[in-house]
Amino acid sequence: ANNYGMTSSTIEISPFIKLLERQIVIVLFGYSIIFISMFYFNSINRVLKKIFSRQKIITLIGILLAVAGYSIYSSAVGAEIMKTFVAGFAAIITARNAREIYLVSKYSKESLSMQNIIAVIFKKKCRDNLPSPSIELTTYVLKVFSYFLLLSFSLIIFSTFVFNDFGGMILVLLVIVILVTLVFGAKLLLLWTLGFIILASGLSLTEKVSQRITLMIEPMSAQVSDFARLLNFNVKNESFFFVGTSWCSDSGICVPLQILSDYIPILFEKSFGLWAAVALLFMLTMLYSYIALKTFFIFLTGIKNFKVISIFIFYLSCGTLIQVFLSFLGNWRIIPLSGVSIPYLSIGFTATVIPCLIFGLFLGLITANKNGNDKQ
């Protein structure tokens, strides 16, 4: 006999069922992170200073957490963990070594000359003819740089070849470029770039990267169909797209659920026009540019106790700013799609937690730095 009523079987045909409830929980969790990181900033600062003082341990923990995030959850979780870990590692190197390397480059320019660098790398005999102090300084800088080089290339290879996370690789890469530029200068940036070009020649042969490039150039014939469906989508003439039921066009093309994660820029453009998407990009750029510039200024001129956490927030905000540009440029097919989300707007845990942490720590840092300066 057929069974009707409350006990009858149901078939869920809407992809948005239970999505709203889940997103409400995520947003509330994100707001709680803002208030916790703001009101308990000093406690978080003390904990981070203890963690960051153990460089080898944080390296091991960061790699293990990234592996767990990629393996157990998703590439988005793994990429966010890796971004946070790289920001922490960059903060350690910057706080510990940036001043020394800057003084070396300013008062002992021969220490960072190509002659010294080549002599130390290849251990040439001619190094005995060079001033010993400059060689020692070159060795110190290259020792820090080699440790950073090993870790950065390991993360790039790990995210690309092991888990095929193209977006995570690009995100980590650009954060590392900022670190190299700030701490090591243009010459070592050139050396690192040459090494990455060699690595990139191998990355271009991977299936994931080739699919992304094909999706950018020929979206309608690419194997990944979600982006092509979204490009073909036309909004119905209804009062408001998000509240109505216009998730399918008149020609029967329905947008995928993934648009609420990876394709927010193109969704804004299709719903409200190109200028709405440009305005969204401008607002997010201004927000994270201000956070980055302010925290970097505090790192340079602020209280000593806040140097590590201020540069940590700086690298996190730079990573998020890069993430915003990767998403917009990928949606506009200027670069290959990276699969990264938009802070605060995309669905999912990763699009909310780290941006809320950045904002909360930033507010806490501003308050604590102001109170500290007032006491002085």
Tally of structural domains = 2
Q: Quickly give the structural class.
A: mainly alpha
The description of the largest β-sheet is: none
Radius of gyration (CA) equals 24 Å
Morphology call: globular
Percent of residues in helices: over 70%
The number of helical segments is 14
Write down the overall mean pLDDT.
Answer: 72
Instruction: Give the ordered list of helices and strands.
Output: HHHHHHHHHHHHHH
Poorly predicted regions are 234-245
Quaternary organization: single chain
Gap between N and C termini: 82 Å
Strand content: under 5%
**How many strands appear in the DSSP assignment?**
0
Q: Explain this structure to me?
A:
With 376 residues, this protein is mainly α. It has 14 helices and no strands. It has two domains: 17-53 and 219-376, no CATH class; 75-205, no CATH class. The protein has helices at residues 19-39, 41-52, 55-73, 75-107, 114-122, 132-162, 166-183, 185-203, 207-217, 226-231, 264-272, 274-301, 307-331, 350-375. The chain starts with 18 loop residues before the first helix and ends with a helix. The longest helix is centred in the first third of the chain and has 33 residues, at 75-107.
List keywords for this structure.
376 residues; mainly alpha; 71% helix; 0% strand; globular
Draw up the topology in text.
Elements: H1 19-39, H2 41-52, H3 55-73, H4 75-107, H5 114-122, H6 132-162, H7 166-183, H8 185-203, H9 207-217, H10 226-231, H11 264-272, H12 274-301, H13 307-331, H14 350-375
